[in-house]
Every structure is written in structure tokens, then in C-alpha cells.
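Q: C-alpha cells for this one, please.
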Amino acid sequence: MNFAFSDEQEAFRREIRRFVAERSPMAEVRRALERPEAFDRKLWRALAEELGLPGIGIAEAQGGQGFGPLEIGIVQEELGRGLVCAPFFSTACLAVPAIVHVGDDADHRAWLPEIASGERTATLAWLEPGSGWDLGEVAMVAHRDADRFVLSGRKCLVVDGAAAGLLLVVARDEGTGGRDGLGLYALGADAPGLEAEPIVPLDPTRAHADLVLDGARAVPVGSPGGASPGLERTLAEAATLLALESLGGAEACLDMAVAYAGQRIQFARPIASFQAIKHKCADMLLELEGARVAAYWAAWASAENDPVLARAASLAKALCCDAFRLCAAGNVQIHGGLGVTHEADPSLYYKRARASEELLGSPIWHRGRIADDLGI
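A: Here is the predicted structure, written as C-alpha cells:
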């Protein structure tokens, strides 16, 4: 079993890293934070037109590049390293896999070409107030009305929910419970009866919104009531890709901390020469490399559609989020009082780390899933 990336994949990584460094330095990230949608639409067009990233996981028949989870993971890792403000995670890591795994050929032809071209962004909404991240806790009911379905209720913490052009909402058939009877329903952002309420997130680099649906009419993606297997795979892949994004952010924090420690002079010597700083950086590196192994294993399992994917994804999500939090906190501490200010970059990485820790389930929640899966 070889987890090493190919020469072509490494060249692809270098190209993504070059693009991020040139087109989305931290000064541009901060400018994006001033926009209501918290991302730069010009940058999104460049990602689509120059690199084709919105369609990286979409088949060539629908206008995409036809790459797999490993290449998408490389993109996520590099975007996370640069805190790039773009709806890539919501569109390419949540919405596209949901359409691919749940929808049929007609759904693919209907929705994927516009996403691949970058003309339309999309997101997935399933979390509800008072419930957890598990799909079995979805309570919203889809009421059939001729060839469409009517949705009423509320979805919360929807990534890029106020800016997405296509909303994919998870709801269930009447009289069903648990993972039985779940369906995926699509509606445009301008659909009557749909209102997106932006919320103030902990992480300003990733926008969230609550969705209020009041008799909103939607069309089913795939078979109504039969979406559970596809959605389970979608969320396992999304957890893996969020883990890889966190891995990139953790690595950026370590690099930033080491660079600052080598430049900061205290008592007539760089603080990097102090044993306490060396130990902290060593702890950060150890946590980072352990998480890297788990993340790449989960990416491999996703690419191979291995039955161990769900367990591998939970392990990667837990370890990578732990590593990101530790590295982000260490970076802040090594920068001293400067590190906690909004004007300093370490604070933005720390906020992303803490927000990503909870998104798609906390490390504790994922460890619980692993324990349940093992029968512990």
C-alpha cells in the first residue's frame, strides 16, 4: 500500500500553492472579510476559469475535470494553508458529492455543468436546531405536491448558505425515522418561501447562514426517500476533505511560528534558541505528522471506496482538528500578545481551527462514532 503522491499530483499541488500565494495572499483574505458573502467573486471566477476547481470532482461529460478524492484533497489542503475565502468546500466538497452519489444521470446533467463552469455555487443543508450532525436526526418532512415537494422548517449552520445559488436540503418522508426515508431536494436561492439569514460566525473566513423554509417548493435529487446511502458517503468524504483543509492550516501555523521565532529577538538572541519554544514547535510537528497519516489514509479510502471509509474519515477529522487547534494555539502563544489581535494572522487561523473543530462534528463526536463502529 503506497500513500505517496505521484509526480503529477505533486506538480498539481505546486500549481495550487503558487496560485494561492499570488492571487490570495493574506492581504486579499482580509479584503474578502469585508464583503457580505465573505469571499471574492473575482477570485472564484479565476479558480474556475484558470484552474477549473469547481468542477474538479465532476465527470468530463458534465464539463468537469473528472479528478478523484486525492486531487480534491490536495486542493483542500492548499486552500486551508492559505485560508482562502472561496465557496470551494460548500460547492465541491458538500454539494457536488451529494448530487453525484444521490442523483441519477438526469440530475447530473441538470445541475453539474453550471457548477463545473463556476456559474453557480451550491451547498448542502441538513443540520437542524436542537439536533446533531447525524443524518438520522433530521426531522424536516418533505410533503409531496404533484411532481414537486414542499419543505417547511429551519436548517442551521449552512456553509455559504446566503451566497449559494443552489440549495440542497435533506428532508424525510412522512412517517419515517432514523436513516430511513431520507431524501435530497434542490431549490434555487430565489425560490419563494426560502429565506437565508446570515449569522455571525466564529470564523470570519467562512460564511454560514440559517435557512428558513416556509412552504418552499423543491425538486427531488435521485429517488425520494432513498438518499441515505449516498448522503452517508458524501458526509464521510466531506469530513475527510475538511480534515485535509485543517491539515493545511496546521502546517501553515507551524511554518509561521518557526519563522517568527527565528526573527523575534529577546535577551539578545532569537527566541527560537529557547528550549521552551523548541519543545512547543516539536510538539506541534509531532501532532501534525500523526494527523497527516490519518488524513491521507482517509483520502485513499475515499478514492478506493473502501468500506473502512466512515471510520477512517472520523479518525482523520478528529486527529486533524486536534492538530490544527494545537498548532494554531501554539502559533498564537509564540507570537505573544501580538498573536491574539485581529490584525495579526495567527488569530485568523485560530478562529478557523476552532470553527472547523465543530463543523461536521467535534473530535469527541467522531471518536464516539469510531467506538460505536468497533462495538466498544
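A few notes: The mean pLDDT is 94. The radius of gyration is 21 Å.
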